[in-house]
Known about the structure:
Keywords: CBS domain, Repeat. By secondary structure, the protein is of the alpha+beta class.
Amino acid sequence: MSALRVSDIMSNHIAPLRCGTPLTEVVRTLLENHITGLPVVDEKRHVVGFVSEQDCIHALLVSNYHCEGDPVVDDVMFHEPLPVDPDMAIVDLAQKLGSGKPKVYPVVENEKLIGIVTRTAVLAELARIGCGLELSKRSGANN
C-alpha cells in the first residue's frame, strides 16, 4: 500500500476554476460535477486559491441578503490552498485527511495544477486494497 501515490488516484477531468469566474458559474460547476470544492488557477495554471461549497453558501447568503449582485470567485476563495505532490504516498495523504483538513486537494507538479485528489478517492482506494471492494473508477473521483 505504501507504493500507491496520489497520481494513481487523482482526477483531472474537471477543469479548474479561473480567477474572475462568477460565483453562479462556480456553484454550477461544483453541483454538476458532484464535487465539494475546486482549485482556482491563474492563466499559467498556478494555484492561487481554493473555493468550497461552504465558501459559496456563505457568499450567496450575504450577496442575496444585501442584493449585492453576483460575486466572483476571487471574493470568496481561500487564498492559502493546500496542494499535494503527485508522488505523495496515499497513506500520508490519508493521515492528513483524518485531521479534518479539506476534502479536496489540488495536485501540483512544477508549480502547475495537474489534477485534484478527493477524500472519496482515498477512501475508495483504501477500501479496495484493504477490503477487496470493487468500485467503479467514477465513484473514487467524486467529493
